[in-house]
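User: If only I could read backbone structure tokens as easily as an amino acid sequence. Underneath my words sits a plain record pairing an amino acid chain with its backbone structure tokens. This is the protein in question:
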Amino acid sequence: MIFQGARADLLAASVPDVLIDCSDPEHAHSLLAGELPGRLEGRSLRLSGLGEQATARVVVSLVNAGIGVYGVRRDEQTLEDVFMDLTKDGGL
């Protein structure tokens, strides 16, 4: 058993990806590549597993590097997304 509780608790326990819209996503990706897993999606950078404080530090790092940050948002997760995250290391 990986988790026991209500659906709302399950969704609250998961950390959705952060999408950062910025002026130079390629530079942002290369700047963060050594520290954080991420991938490019058009003009956005998708980062996984960041809490609020880590997200704030990333935004500060990007701005300090001269990269314009236009938007930061959390990707909505479905119940299937949460399930896949929970079972990725112990799946069938």
Notes: The longest strand covers residues 69-74. Residues 14-77 form a domain with the Alpha-Beta Plaits fold (CATH 3.30.70). The chain is about 40% helix and 20% strand. The beta strands are 18-22, 38-41, 44-47, 69-74.
